[in-house]
Design goal:
The complex is a heterotrimer of chains A (159), B (742) and C (279). Chain A has 159 residues and is an alpha+beta fold. Helix content of chain A is 35%, strand content 13%. Chain A folds into two domains: 70 residues, Beta-grasp domain (Ubiquitin-like (UB roll)), CATH 3.10.20; 75 residues, DNA polymerase, domain 1. Chain A is globular, with a radius of gyration of 16 Å. Chain C has a five-stranded antiparallel β-sheet with strand order 4-5-10-6-7. In chain C, strands 11-12-13-14 form a four-stranded antiparallel β-sheet, sandwiched between helices. In chain C, strand 4 and strand 5 form a beta hairpin. Chain C is 38% helix and 25% strand. Classes of the chains: A alpha+beta (159), B alpha+beta (742), C alpha+beta (279).
Chain lengths: 159, 742, 279
């Protein structure tokens, strides 16, 4: 049976249907079909994390997701207007985290992902955040502020 | 110009942070224009060869292909930079940064990745399909792949005048041979630093658009839009005034100092030929293959000391691998030399340096260029001498470093007190005297080491160095700063805004800044790099601001509208009054600053590292790191701290993990999976000490941090293991080999 | 290139039968999407398994652990039952790449990609897992040790899809060493050790080694030499077992991460350290 129906998913809270080629990456779909440039392109091999988005509550590398994989799922990008994303943004600003800024949307989404997902039984909340951040690289070396912003967010959450 | 009354201004949050946390579409890969075509480049797969023919018939048949450009479109590959810089009667001046032989689509390719043709099509996929169908006949020529090969007597000559970048550079003072013979103790070693890739996360991308009457505009990340404008003019055989360069956001770390092979120029050429906007987006792998690297270096040093630990002689010979085109290689040798000849007070000293051409990926600017290569070698040798003679490494530096009253190599009088403070404050914070240099705990050993350095502010030894800034009152009551300088992530936007606000006695919110556009930005020699923004551009900004302030004070009296920090909102009224009553352009001022000295403002550093070495696996972990940086006036302390942290992180990469492997001319680990750019797991928290000095200008910090890092870490590893590595990165394999375990 | 989206396993198997090696199977996409983007593969069709419910099952009990082709590393990492029943597998799934990759990447997908330096194969070799290869003709179970045959190659036939993994949990002492350059990198040498003790003697030993050559291996001779001795004797001779395993493993891979001789050294250290640690 060939693909004969559009892909349906929720994008930043909005139900969305897509009828075109689902072989393309989620990254290319977001940036070139939906014109959402906030998710950045980087290594395209699943290492730098500049393309991080949240899929069903978990951070993923959108360069390594083919569009067919998001059918019936929920995607959140840096363009989302959810209040807890705004809190992460404010933490990044107040800690002076962005330098060149290319990694920042991905870092923000990874930090948001750390609040959205639970630590495994092997991790503290802080280790959970730092483990998630291993999926992102900052070439400017701004890690101290990115981690500080992330820690502020996860420690201010009410459990 | 007046510096600020106090050493340290207050920290300010980055003004561009809000747009960056929203992922604003301000990067080169975000930029799009209606009707834009996509282009891909056909690149050489061999290291050296003569192009005999290019057949594009099959490529043109791919649906969607609009245009293909080859050497025919650039006068048979004869446009571009000739090998020797044609200054009548002068030959090549010292310190030339002439990119010898650099052309768009040359008839002889000189490295794997050199551009041969470019295809513009409606989609990137069609362009790539067409590129794959272009048939090229290349007559292979024997490549020169290593520095030694290049200098052997029967070497193939890459360019007719030889495989050395002109000129070789050499300097001697005193009688080095005799002093080495007479010395109480002599030491000799050869030290190597690797090719390091900038590894910018966003792959390189340029968009070019034709804007009528033979003009083009280019959007891409640059360090200096004027530099790119000049290079494109030569590469495309156009007048500079037909080329506008606009800087997009994104980092450089030196990579964007010059045009990249077959990127901006190819986009410009296609834009003119097709009459449509053109986007060339390199892949990440392409960026590693053609995007230039740090110069690999090999430095042979001999040092003689007397029995008090005074250095009485030093002999040094360095070779750097400039790759196929020497974009800054003449200057880098001079720069290494001036560092070698400046930091220590040595009565008998000799330096010679060669930048060597090879048929490999070109080397170029890279954060802390020249100082990294020099100080890895010199500081490691001094640390070895300290160990051999059982002298405290800190003491060895304190005895020998240049002191106040002496002169740097290019003649600048030195104030060494910032260096002294860096050393003492750094040692204090690190607890240098509180723990032994080596501690052994079973299979783990902890070692501590240090190193010092100096770096330049501004290019140094270039009479063209200078920057001009214009400030302008706007109709809506702001002062706009217009500068060619971009913000490559180092915080220049915020720093210049602070400096303007202070100089005009206005709040930050009254200042706007327009950056990185050649259209109306006044002259700037080298852009945002080499520590020069806060000093050279900043001084010009202060000059212009002072002039504008005077003008505004006069108008304020005339208009009877107060002008002050508290009444900043009145600026709009002042502008209105001027438009209504005086007429003509709103007040503005432009000021050019050109430093008098060739090496205007050295910036010192002292770093201290503590590492833990696993003696069974050779793995090295940095436990503590203290970086003391000499800053002069500190414009934005928080951003300075971040720049030091970032500079240390970047340099620890070269010290421990990063090496771009080039085998038989081919980059073999050119991607983010195989090239080891450190992530959160590799990052080391750094204790930063910002050493400010009253009555000095701001010295800049973006690029001066890296130099002491590798030698400090290698010294710490040496104290832990008993062995000094002479080559970085200090991979576990190298550590175990030194220990005799592999 | 087309994407085919079967909703039942038999549909998927028919598609694979029809297209053979012109069809690539898409599960979590963490490996395949990279190959596609870099144009290293260009199949005619992709068969996406993500809409097939039965491939998402995970069974964990004292008697068996079974999971389908769509079960992610992350799901195994977070399973409390798996952590109790098969801690080695649980741990190894938790150190794959980064959480981003684990959230989508599947264990079976990882195994079928057969890239040197990934983690799950060592767990499967150390725990005597078996992989179910299904086709329209039926199913067969392949022991993990036979599954990967070379760089990026497995023993799957053109018309087969790997659909399930099963293993019988045992009470064993186990550990996993992963040496890598950066925390999110592939291993340059990884060693999974699982040892069962009965009546104060070593009853079985598994030394699964990866990252060092074309395929993950077990040091079978070294394993045999451990059988029947006491844990104390094993500890005393740990260095010898380390040497023996490193010689058997015979690392051949030298690349920009590390030369083969360093990989060999790491295997020796890991095996001797591991034996001391767990016994």
């Amino acid at each position: 049976m060939e693909k004969d129906s559009p892909i349906n998913f929720i994008l930043n809270g909005k139900p969305t249907a897509y009828d075109g080629s689902s072989v393309k990456s989620l990254l290319d779909f977001l940036r070139y079909d939906m014109n959402l440039k906030g998710t950045k392109e980087g290594c395209r091999v699943g290492y730098c994390g500049a393309c991080t988005v949240i899929l069903n509550g978990k951070p993923v590398h959108s360069c390594c997701v083919l569009l067919v994989q998001v059918n019936n799922k929920e995607i959140e990008t840096i363009e989302s207007t959810s209040p807890d994303l705004e809190t992460v943004r404010e933490a990044f600003i107040s800690h002076n985290a962005p330098q060149c800024g290319v990694c920042i949307p991905g870092m923000i989404m990874s930090c948001l992902g750390a609040t959205r997902s639970q630590p495994s039984s092997r991790e503290t909340k802080e280790e959970h955040l730092k483990n998630i951040l291993t999926g992102n690289i900052c070439r400017c070396g701004g890690y101290s502020r990115i981690i500080a912003a992330g820690l502020e967010i996860i420690n201010s959450e009410s459990t | 110009m007046n510096s600020s009354k106090s050493t340290k201004n207050e920290s300010v949050l980055r003004i561009d942070a809000p747009e960056k946390v929203h992922g604003a579409p301000v990067y080169s890969t975000d930029f799009e224009l209606p009707g834009m075509l996509h282009a891909k480049v056909l690149r050489s797969y061999i290291s050296r060869g003569k192009i005999l023919s290019i057949d594009t018939k099959a490529a043109y048949k791919v649906p969607g292909v609009i245009s293909i450009v080859t050497s025919e479109d650039v006068s048979g590959g004869e446009l571009g930079f000739p090998e020797l810089r044609p200054i009548p009667g002068k030959g090549i001046p010292p310190g030339s940064d002439w990119p010898s032989g650099f052309r768009l689509f040359p008839s002889i390719v000189n490295f794997i990745g050199e551009g041969i043709a470019a295809v513009a099509a409606e989609t990137a996929e069609a362009a790539q399909e067409a590129v794959d169908l272009i048939e090229v006949e290349i007559e292979e020529m024997p490549p020169v792949l290593t520095m030694d090969e290049a200098l052997s007597p029967d070497a193939q000559l890459i360019f007719p005048h030889g495989n050395l970048v002109q000129p070789e550079w050499t300097y001697t003072k005193g009688n080095v041979e005799k002093a080495l013979t007479d010395a109480f103790f002599t030491f000799e070693g050869i030290y190597k630093t690797p090719r390091q890739a900038h590894a910018i996360i966003e792959p390189l991308c340029a968009v070019a658009a034709p804007t009528g009457l033979g003009r083009i505009t280019i959007w891409t990340v640059v360090n200096s839009p004027h530099e790119i404008q000049q290079e494109l003019a030569i590469l495309l055989g156009m007048n500079e005034d037909k080329i506008r360069v606009i800087c997009t956001q994104g980092p450089s770390y030196g990579a964007r100092d010059n045009v990249t092979n077959s990127l901006e120029a190819a986009a410009g050429l296609l834009a003119l030929k097709t009459g449509r906007p053109i986007r060339i987006a390199l892949t990440s792998e392409e960026t590693f293959q053609v995007g230039r690297t740090r110069h690999e270096s090999r430095f042979h040093i001999k040092t003689g000391v007397d029995n008090d630990g005074r250095i009485i002689a030093m002999w040094g010979k360095v070779m750097v691998n400039s790759g196929a085109y020497s974009l800054i290689s003449g200057r880098i040798i001079e720069s290494i030399g001036s560092k070698f000849l400046s930091l220590y007070d040595i009565p008998n000293i000799h330096f010679e340096g060669q930048a060597v051409r090879t048929n490999t990926v070109p080397a170029g600017s890279y954060r802390c260029v020249a100082s990294v290569q020099n100080y890895f070698a010199v500081e490691t040798q001094l640390n070895e001498i300290a160990t051999k003679l059982n002298i405290d490494p800190v003491k060895l530096r304190q005895i020998n470093h240049i002191k106040t009253g002496a002169k740097l190599f290019w003649g600048t009088p030195v104030d060494s007190s910032p260096l002294e403070r860096c050393i003492s404050q750094g040692a204090d914070k690190f607890g240098w005297n509180e723990k032994p240099l080596a501690i052994r705990k079973g299979n783990k050993a902890i070692g501590r080491g240090m190193a010092i350095s100096t770096h330049h502010t501004g290019i140094g030894n270039v009479s063209r160095e200078g920057s001009a800034v214009r400030v302008q009152l706007t109709s809506d009551g702001h002062v706009e700063v217009i500068t060619a300088i971009p913000d490559n992530g180092q915080g220049s936007l915020t720093a210049l805004t602070i400096m303007a606000a202070n100089a005009l006695d206005l709040p930050l919110k009254s200042i706007r800044i327009r950056m990185g556009d050649t259209l109306d930005a006044p002259f700037d020699y080298m852009g945002a790099g080499v520590n020069r923004v806060t000093y050279i551009t900043g001084t010009a900004l202060r000059g212009a601001s002072a002039q504008l302030k005077k003008i505004l004070e006069v108008i304020s009296k005339e208009a009877q509208i107060p002008y002050s920090f508290k009444t900043a909102n009145n600026l709009a009224l002042l502008a209105d009054w001027h438009n209504a009553i005086k007429g003509g352009s709103l007040p503005s001022a432009e000021y050019m600053f050109r430093p008098k000295e060739l090496d205007p403002l050295p910036t010192f550093a002292a770093h201290f590292a503590e590492v833990e070495v696993s003696l069974d696996t050779g793995e090295v972990k940095v436990l503590n790191y203290v970086a003391a940086q000499d800053l002069g006036e500190i414009i934005n302390p928080d951003i300075c701290t971040l720049q030091v942290e970032g500079g240390v992180y970047h340099a620890i990469g070269m010290a421990l993990f990063e090496e771009l492997h080039v085998e038989e001319g081919m980059v073999t680990n050119g991607n983010f999976m195989e090239y080891s750019v450190g992530g959160v797991g590799e990052w080391v928290p750094t204790d930063v000490i910002l050493v400010g000095t009253e009555n000095l200008p701001p010295k800049g910090v973006g690029t001066s941090v890296a130099a002491p890092v590798a030698p400090a870490i290698v010294a710490a590893i040496a104290n832990a293991t008993g062995y000094f590595l002479h080559e970085v990165p200090a991979t576990p394999t190298r550590v175990l080999e030194a220990l005799g375990k592999l | 290139m087309k994407i085919l989206v079967p909703h039942h396993l038999n549909e998927a198997l028919e598609m694979k039968q029809q297209y053979g090696d012109q069809a690539q199977v898409l599960a979590g996409g963490q490996s395949l999407s990279v190959l596609l983007q870099k144009r290293l593969v260009s199949p005619e069709v992709l068969i996406y398994l993500g809409e097939i419910e039965e491939l998402n099952t995970l069974i964990v009990s004292e008697e068996q652990v079974r999971f389908g082709a769509m079960v992610t590393n992350s799901r195994l990492e977070y399973s409390q039952e798996l952590k109790k029943i098969a801690p080695l597998l649980s741990h190894i799934c938790s150190v794959v790449a980064s959480p981003h990759v684990r959230n989508l990447g599947t264990v079976i997908g990882n195994l079928c990609h057969a890239e040197v330096g990934t983690d799950p194969p060592q767990a499967l070799l150390a725990l005597d897992a078996q992989i179910c290869a299904s086709s329209v003709k039926g199913t067969r179970w392949i022991p993990a040790i036979d599954f990967i045959t070379d760089f990026f190659e497995t023993t799957l036939e053109e018309d087969e899809i790997a659909t399930e993994i099963k293993l019988s949990p045992t009470k064993c002492k186990s550990t996993y060493f992963k040496h890598k350059v950066r925390s999110m990198d592939l291993a340059i040498a990884s060693v999974a050790i699982a040892i069962q003790i009965q009546d104060d003697k070593i009853a079985s030993a598994r030394l699964a080694i990866g990252g060092i050559g074309p395929k993950p291996i077990r040091a079978l001779n070294t394993e045999s030499s451990l059988i029947g001795i006491t844990p104390e004797a094993a500890i005393e001779n740990a260095d010898h077992f380390g040497s023996s395993a490193s010689i058997e493993a015979n690392p051949s891979l030298s690349d920009s991460f590390a030369p083969a001789k360093y990989r060999k050294h790491l295997v020796r250290i890991a095996v001797s350290k591991g034996i001391r640690q767990i016994l």
